[in-house]
Amino acid sequence: MSDTQVSSAAASTLGGGVTSGGDGAGNAPSPAARGPRSSRIGWRQRFEITLLAGPAIAVFVLFVILPVFMAAYYGFYRWHGYGKPTDFVWFQNYKVILSDPAFRHAVLHNFQIVALSLLIQGPVAILLALLLNRKMRGRSIIRVLVFVPWVVSEIIAGTGWSLMLQTQGAVNAILTDLHVFGRVHVDWLGNPHIAIWTLMVILTWKYIGFAVILLMAGLQNIPEELYEAATMDGAGYWQTQWRITLPLLGPTIRIWAFLSIIGALQLFDLVYIVWGQYVAGVAGVSTMATYMVQNGRLAGNYGYGNAVAVVLFFISLFVALVYQRLVLRRDVAGSEGKAR
Amino acid sequence: MTTSALEAGTARRTKPSRAPKPKQPWGSPATYFIALVVIGLTLAPVVYIVLGGFRTNSQITTDPAGLPHPWKLSNYTDVLGSSTFWTEFFNSALVAAVTTVGVVALGLMASYVLARYRFRGRGLMFALFASGLMFPITVAVTPLFLLLKDLGLLDSRIGVILPQIGFALPATIIILVPFLQAIPLEIEEAAAVDGCGRLAFFLRMVLPLSIPGVLTTGILAFVASWNSYLLPLFILNSPESFTLPLGVQVFSSQYSTDTAKVLAFTSLSMLPALLFFTLFERRIVGGLQGAVKG
């Protein structure tokens, strides 16, 4: 039962709220919590806690939490980054952002990417994880190879893909050499009807490894006996996967989906590297983050850029809270009554 | 209960798949076929980059998808002979190493507090770190740039390292806490009987026992730092302080006509992370197991 607490703790606190059970004390107290010495909360223990947790909290608050509040502050100013911000403009920046068609398009693209990521990567990752979980020769080598794209940096993946996807590039050349489609001359990156799908292929290629790693870790937690029992009852391979693996993998899938949604909303690197700052908007793959960098830092409008960051944050937060209410809640609620 | 918790950390070793396997069954051919197709698709772009480095530009132009013919080593030797590459390599290595050590040290200490101490505000502290998953670097990077400017840390490696540590802490803590909770209370009691204080217990017992989790989080932090792009893009602006991802970008716009050399530079800069990951891949899956328990 103590194994349920991390995913549920992560799930219940993701939205930022402190819920009971979220700290692990609610459903499964940590061993030390009942320790003989833990009742003596003296200066010595306080000193130890401060000494051990202090540095992490300091770095985290200073470089992660504080910047977000700073963004909220600077977002109210028209400011170009020199000296102190003085030109307080209330919600002017936000009005401009929300009425800018370029931003609305970026938001739309983000949500398209969220939906397509879940629909494409989810099933593919589950099938891959099942495949890699089968006993077969050379499995460990196959595993390493499947994870290669995830380890390769965004800049390298982006450079490689953008070269391959040129109209004169390798992808078109290979398709031509297949002699099925005739002479292929597709503008994979520039054509606004195709670009979003090109992006999805690149994203799937790049991030499927992470989904597979998570799912494989989840698969290891499913007790072998369940499969043995299913086999004895005469269940076939796919029936077993559908009835046993998939439901038991549920919590892992939901955590992955959460991370994938947040990642898709924050997407920046690959779009920026492959499409650059100007083409992305035209090709229909600009995201909120590329909009933020283009209109904030690159344009020298730091006040405006910070306001975009705030909008981006609130959209992510909203989606995360909705997701937590609708989906993750089940895991948290379920873990309370679950016993091994 | 404590023993079942301990299994979270050690189950890998007892699983049949981890046991020494004298004879692995071959399985069905369909499995291998699908696996081969998947591997082909995942590796193709990487292979393209690596092989492209061995070609000449005219080879790439006339036959974009061909093999090197003849093989040309000079692209790689040129890159390896350039001081730019090595400066950036050194910067990346230093930033990644310090980030990794920092994340693991701070993360382990904070996780130990969360896992083994009971105090008011413990839930709040966990919530604080877990909320960090909601604050990706994309949102924070613009104000972070301004903050580091005020602190005088712009264009310095420490200005990249400190925020990277901060942003890696949430995942590290979420992975490490279950590892530390899995250490049986009896060991701590026995240590206490032997006159071992909690801090000494931390150093002598907790550190060695949490090695699997530490490796997982350490590798993840190292690879993330090695590949990090957005933060260095904002913080670093002089070529001497560039890390490899920025170097790749600058190099590819500088030598945009010399595709082959760009590909050579690119493939050399991905090697260390790939090597690192390949060596420790098993550890990562094992270490994440605790974090996705359902």
TrEMBL record, chain A:
Q: Which UniProt keywords apply?
A: Cell membrane, Membrane, Transmembrane, Transmembrane helix, Transport
Q: How does it sit in the membrane?
A: Multi-pass membrane protein
Give any Pfam family that matches.
BPD_transp_1
Stretches the record annotates as Disordered? 12-39
Query: What are the subcellular locations of this protein?
Result: Cell membrane
* Secretion signal, residue range per the UniProt entry: none
Q: Which CDD domains match?
A: TM_PBP2
> Could you tell me which SUPFAM superfamilies the record lists for this protein?
MetI-like
What range(s) does the ABC transmembrane type-1 domain occupy?
107-323
Principal cellular location given in the protein's record: membrane
Q: Where are the transmembrane segments?
A: 49-76, 111-132, 144-164, 194-217, 253-275, 302-323
InterPro entries named among the record's database cross-references: ABC_transporter_permease (IPR051393), MetI-like (IPR000515), MetI-like_sf (IPR035906)
Gene3D superfamilies given for it?
A: MetI-like
| Keyword Transmembrane set for record | yes
* Gly residues bias (residue ranges): 14-25
**What PANTHER family does this protein map onto?**
ABC TRANSPORTER PERMEASE PROTEIN, INNER MEMBRANE ABC TRANSPORTER PERMEASE PROTEIN YCJO
Q: Give the family from UniProt.
A: Belongs to the binding-protein-dependent transport system permease family.
Name of this chain's protein: Sugar ABC transporter permease
Q: Which organism is it from?
A: Nocardioides panacihumi
Automatic annotation (TrEMBL), chain B:
Q: Which CDD domains match?
A: TM_PBP2 (cd06261)
Q: Keywords in UniProt for this one?
A: Cell membrane, Membrane, Transmembrane, Transmembrane helix, Transport
**What lineage is this protein's organism placed in?**
Bacteria, Bacillati, Actinomycetota, Actinomycetes, Propionibacteriales
Which PROSITE patterns does the record match to this protein? Answer: ABC_TM1
Q: Where is the ABC transmembrane type-1 domain?
A: 89-280
**Extent of Basic residues compositional bias:** 12-21
User: What InterPro entries does the annotation carry?
Assistant: MetI-like, MetI-like_sf
Tell me any Pfam family this protein matches: BPD_transp_1
Residue ranges of the TM segments:
30-51, 89-114, 126-148, 160-180, 201-224, 262-280
In its UniProt entry, what is this protein called? Carbohydrate ABC transporter permease
Could you confirm whether the keyword Membrane appears in this record?
yes
Q: Where is this region: Disordered?
A: 1-25
Tell me which family the UniProt entry assigns to this protein.
Answer: Belongs to the binding-protein-dependent transport system permease family.
Specify the superkingdom.
Answer: Bacteria
Q: Where does it localize?
A: Cell membrane
Q: How does it sit in the membrane?
A: Multi-pass membrane protein
Q: Is the Cell inner membrane keyword given for this protein?
A: no
